[in-house]
């Protein structure tokens, strides 16, 4: 199972893991990487949900030649963020954005 497959499994888990409660699961270099990536993409999904609820703000997924990009923007805050989404996590973010609309 790849690192991103493990991150996807954590993102889809209704009971979020804790590094303290699940210490053995996140032990070692690979486990630490999985946990850091999980935190990053969970935070990105939460930020997308917050922006989708704000009037005037927007969230979109764009397929480009070099990959799938998640774009977040809020003109009221002069905020724009663009993140490359790994192919393994593309369906997760597509589903999340569909649920927000």
Q: What's the count of strands? A: 3
What summary fits the major beta sheet? 3 strands, antiparallel
Portion in strands: 15-25%
H/E element string? HHEEEH
Briefly note the structural class of the backbone: alpha+beta
The spatial strand order of the largest sheet comes to 1-2-3
**CA gyration radius, whole angstroms:** 15 Å
Helical residue percent band: 40-55%
Low-pLDDT stretches are none
Give the number of domains.
1
Number of helices: 3
Mean pLDDT: 89
**C-alpha termini separation:** 32 Å
Give the CA-based shape: globular
Can you give a write-up of this model?
By secondary structure, this protein is an alpha+beta fold. The chain has one domain (3-100). It contains 3 helices and 3 strands; from the N terminus they run ααβββα. The chain has helices spanning 3-12, 28-52, 90-100, and strands at residues 58-64, 67-74, 79-85. The chain has a 3-stranded antiparallel sheet. The longest helix has 25 residues, at 28-52. The relative contact order is 0.16.
Annotate the secondary structure layout.
Blueprint (H helix, E strand, L loop, with lengths): L2 H10 L15 H25 L5 E7 L2 E8 L4 E7 L4 H11 L1
Helix pairs in contact: 1-2, 2-3
Pick out its properties.
single chain; 101 residues; alpha+beta; three-stranded antiparallel beta sheet; 3 strands
Tell me briefly what this model is:
The chain is 46% helix and 22% strand. It is α+β, with helices and mostly antiparallel strands and 101 residues long.
């Amino acid at each position: 199972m790849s690192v991103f497959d493990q991150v996807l499994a954590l993102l889809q888990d209704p009971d979020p893991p804790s590094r303290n409660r699940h210490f053995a699961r996140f032990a070692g270099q690979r486990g630490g990487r999985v946990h850091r990536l999980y935190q990053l993409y969970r935070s990105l999904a939460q930020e997308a949900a917050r922006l989708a609820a704000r009037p005037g703000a927007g969230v979109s997924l764009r397929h480009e030649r070099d990959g799938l990009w998640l774009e977040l923007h809020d003109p009221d805050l002069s905020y724009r963020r663009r993140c490359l989404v790994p192919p393994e996590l593309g369906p997760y973010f597509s589903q999340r954005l569909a649920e927000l609309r």
